[in-house]
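As agreed, record minuted below.
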Amino acid sequence: SMDLPDNSTRFMVELEFVQCLANPKYLNFLAQHGFLQDDAFVAYLAYLQYWKRPAYTRFLRYPHCLHYLELLQHSRFRQELAKGEFYQMVEGQQLLHWKFYNENRQRRQGTQ
């Protein structure tokens, strides 16, 4: 029989997994391989929403994963991710956000 991981192991595995959701290429992989259409996997994504609680968000290095976690609650988003052009648009929007967020932040801080 397989031993279940202790709580610290489970915490680390779920932390790592939820942060993987910040990667549009990984989301596209999950979609193309049918994970995002699997009811058990979709239920797991719903369960992972506990990461939005402040007690957990403080451990996230890539907090934008929570935005994708929220979007993954919607079947249309999960379906669209399997399409290359949609995934590329999502990735492009993420890159633009980073570019302009950082530029605007530097401008506000007077370091540009």
